[in-house]
């Protein structure tokens, strides 16, 4: 094989965004090695610059054709570009909110950012992985980096406990997932590429159907752990409560997006013979996640635990789009992830600011916050109300699109349960808003009575402020100006051959496609 044909098959330009992230990691590590702690003055900005450069490289790859690279192991199609963009943007927003938090804890900032970008790199590769070995290596890169981030506050017993629980449960989940894909490898006769596995399974006899179902069960268990779906959610509340808050913010968006990208690519491409079975299982997971996540959140007293159960419920909403399997379903799920990125990270930024000033995350300690910090109160209210689905914020239109796509596809029970649990979720979000705004001055909590004066000139506070403003503005405007985002999500689905091929097998595919093209118009009408 000559060099020209080898270069054409490698097609290394498709991993340019990941190469930028790798280069950024190397710059951070070498700079920290040379300068030591003084590197903290420029390392965060280098990290943000690398993430934004990766987003620019992803934008340049849109509609370039020939998405396969490295002999088919990596697929840079429109679907992977969108998911990789969500993951790297979540890292870019997480970096500025981490600076003050990490430095105040007395730990090294450069190491933290290097591990964070390594997790980002794993999630990006996982979103485009089209081969079993690549999938597992990418998944473990994301998982191991997440374990390290969870236990990064070595002097905090809660962080150590959270990391240990996450490691043990995550290792079991990885082993289960590995067993599932090893069965795929055996059933397909030794194939590792997803397309080759699908072709091999299509030609096998029904004698292998039991093995295929067993493989499906193990694969779904691994995916459900990554997206924190019930009953594989046990790690979520403890990890969210004990981990550093910036880590929780990244895991709630970046890790979840990578899990859904893996679910779409792996289930749709390799399990078409048992599509009814995996859709039934995900229907049950969606119902359990929506019900348990939103109901249990009502009883929480810690803000981080409440947001943990909220994220479980939000995963249930997103799974509706995966279950119905139409163009509109996939597009609405991608759109919801886009807006969830900003409203969830904005909420966690507010929690970080409050904990930096008071040292607590108890909901009762937010009582009377409006009297001392109106800006933080307004930002947190907007983010929580958007998570609850209050119009005209972005979360309302995200849920509207998902429920509308589900209703058009005939998933009436899922939509009704989603509507009921969404109303339940509004209660615990409104409870926090009421705690901050309605309380009289004499009902202030002790933390608010001793609330320190605002000092934005402290090191690391301005980046938090910038991160908060970006998240809140995006949350507010993404609802009113939702058409561009939904058009992007819809184009990602329409331009992905894998999803179009799968939709040909669904009787509602044509209906879903028409819904996908008309829903942005509906968004415009509702916005005004």
TrEMBL record:
Complex and partners: NDH-1 can be composed of about 15 different subunits; different subcomplexes with different compositions have been identified which probably have different functions.
Superkingdom of source: Bacteria
Domain NAD(P)H-quinone oxidoreductase subunit 2 N-terminal: start-end pairs: 13-99
Any one Gene Ontology cellular component term annotated for this protein: plasma membrane-derived thylakoid membrane
UniProt keyword terms in alphabetical order: Membrane, NAD, NADP, Plastoquinone, Quinone, Thylakoid, Translocase, Transmembrane, Transmembrane helix, Transport
InterPro entries for this protein: NADH-Q_OxRdtase_suN/2 (IPR010096), ND/Mrp_TM (IPR001750), Ndh2_N (IPR045693)
Keyword Cell inner membrane included in the entry's annotation: no
Protein name per Swiss-Prot or TrEMBL: NAD(P)H-quinone oxidoreductase subunit 2
GO molecular function, one term: NADH dehydrogenase (ubiquinone) activity
